[in-house]
Design goal:
- This protein is mainly alpha-helical.
- It has one domain.
- Helices cover 73% and strands 3% of the residues.
- It has 11 helices and 2 strands.
- Strands 1-2 form a two-stranded antiparallel sheet.
- The protein is globular and about 65 Å long.
- The C terminus is likely disordered.
Length: 293
């Protein structure tokens, strides 16, 4: 029963890890940039959502405001930072995103300070309790809402990338930049859309996770770390793989906490990632190493 409860408790967190990994992988797979400012970009959008909530007391408005802010942050970052620096090396791009991480954190501290802020749950209702022969399973209603929203958004984005003209253009750009240009695809517009959508996903993660993490300048640093880990586990070349990697990661985290100790959760998961990198560097759900494409 403890195993089943651990799995149920781990799915909502895993869904958030998967959504975080999806945004990171989408940007990396398309543009080749591993964005270390991903979490802080979503944190900034979450603070905007908090401000809207304090003004309106409406959770829906605050979520919409956070996601729109994420879209705008992605647009600004791509247009005024990433595009002018497009031709520098991947290592230099990493340093740029690390610098962006610190700039965003500084902006948030100046405007909102460093205090922790409470944020309401997305769905407040009595938990669902299942009485079984061997015990009781408890499923908090807010966790169910988080899981449904996260999985629905990831599925919608995956279908968008698979079946729409713009999605096909994004996939073409990720596979072969020169070939995409020859086919008449506007690379700059594609990159802008990818950055905007990628940051919007972490903005959504921020408001979904905020009731548990509280809102503070470092709230999404660990989420970003776990998102990158989920991407490595599932395989950055496979967007469905990063979703599964996030779910597996969330479940493993809870099971380690239940059967070993919460103190060893991160250590054991990082050991698992090292093993994956040693024996299957492309990830569990990728056929072979394909670089960023």
């Amino acid at each position: 029963m403890q195993i089943l409860q651990g799995i149920i408790s781990g799915i909502p967190q895993g869904a958030l890890y998967g959504l975080t990994a999806f945004g990171i992988a989408l940007i990396f797979k398309t543009t080749g940039v591993l964005n270390f400012a991903h979490g802080n970009s979503g944190m900034l959008a979450t603070y905007v959502g908090l401000s809207v909530y304090l003004l309106t007391q409406n959770i829906i408005f605050s979520i919409i405001a956070a996601v729109i802010t994420g879209l705008l942050v992605g647009l600004v970052v791509e247009r005024f930072l990433m595009r002018p620096l497009k031709n520098i090396s991947s290592g230099a791009m990493l340093i740029v995103t690390l610098g962006l991480l610190m700039v965003i954190e500084g902006i948030v501290m100046v405007i909102w300070g460093v205090d922790y802020h409470r944020f309401p749950e997305i769905y407040m209702a009595a938990p669902i309790i299942l009485f079984l022969e061997n015990g009781v399973l408890v499923m908090p209603s807010n966790d169910i809402a988080i899981t449904i929203i996260s999985l629905a958004v990831m599925l919608a984005l995956a279908l968008f990338l698979r079946y729409t003209k713009l999605g096909i253009a994004i996939r073409a750009r990720s596979e072969d930049e020169i070939g995409a240009l020859v086919c008449g695809i506007d690379i700059n517009n594609v990159d802008t859309i990818v950055w905007s959508v990628g940051i919007a996903t972490i903005a959504l993660v921020g408001v979904l996770a905020a009731p548990k993490t509280y809102i503070h300048p470092s709230m999404l640093i660990n989420m970003q770390l776990y998102g990158i880990t989920a991407g490595v586990l599932g395989g950055f070349s496979n967007l469905f793989g990063v979703i599964l990697g996030g779910l597996i990661l969330g479940i493993l985290e809870k099971l380690v906490g239940v059967f070993i100790s919460p103190d060893y959760q991160l250590s054991i998961i990082l050991i698992l990632i090292i093993l994956v990198l040693l024996f299957k560097p492309s990830g569990l759900f990728a056929k072979e190493f394909e670089g960023r494409a």
